Amino acid sequence: MTRVVAALAALLLIALAPSLAAAASFDCAKARTKVEKLICKDPQLSRQDEDLAKAYGEALKLWDGQIAAYVKLSQRGWVASRALSAPGMGGGGELCEDDGAALACLRTIHADRIAVLRSSGFRLSGIYARGQDFLRIKATPTGLEFAYQLADANMSQGFTADGAQVKVVPGQTIVAFPLTGTGPDACRLDASFSADEVTLTQKGPCGGAKLGGWWKRDQARDPEAEMF
After folding, report:
1. Rounded distance, CA 86 to CA 163, Å?
2. Pair (55, 137) in one structural domain
3. Cα–Cα dist 20/112, whole Å
4. Which has the higher per-residue pLDDT, 184 or 179?
5. Which of 62, 105, 115, 148 would disulfide-bridge 123, Cβ 3.0–4.6 Å?
6. What is the pTM of this model?
7. Helices within 23-157 (DSSP H only)
8. Do 129 and 112 reside in the same domain of the chain?
9. Is 70 exceeded by the pLDDT of residue 223?
10. What is the DSSP letter of 86?
11. Range of the domain at 186
12. Rounded to an integer, what distance in angstroms lies between the CA atom of residue 110 and that of residue 75?
């Protein structure tokens, strides 16, 4: 009887193996990288990869598909960043190291990416340019982070207060970003978004920076890749 049970269990595992492999968003028979092989071997990561593919498909439809080029660019950058770096050699753009914690790390970054793609703020995120000046509006699982970089070297950069994340609710297109600074230098930016632009209303001196006005979305740039 024990042998029969063992045989049946083995047959069940064999039967389940194809379904586990098929749970990933790609053909596991063609998995080449270590990350892809881990996705195919781990049921949780495989389900996350499938959920990620669904979230990505949903994100492509934001603003009636008008920001699809940005969404594709952002996703390509994220996929590249999930490649495993050599142990002790992180910081080169990869989010996880090829060590004993790789599986847990991959699970975490997949969960975070799904949350970002499905967040209310993702459709507002991106790089917005005005001549040689630009804004970086980055989506996180819980909100938006705002920063700017101006061509004027005297007032080149600014950020939301203490890296604070501004929460966004579904359907929201007007967001208030409080920037760093207190007293007479404090300021706030009220941002009104559409698919291809953001209009800023500046309230306060912002240390002399002139940020009010119209900024155009640049779909060829990813806020995750802008290091400042």
Report:
1. 29
2. no
3. 22
4. 179
5. 62
6. 0.86
7. 34-41, 43-59, 68-81, 102-117
8. no
9. yes
10. P
11. 124-225
12. 12
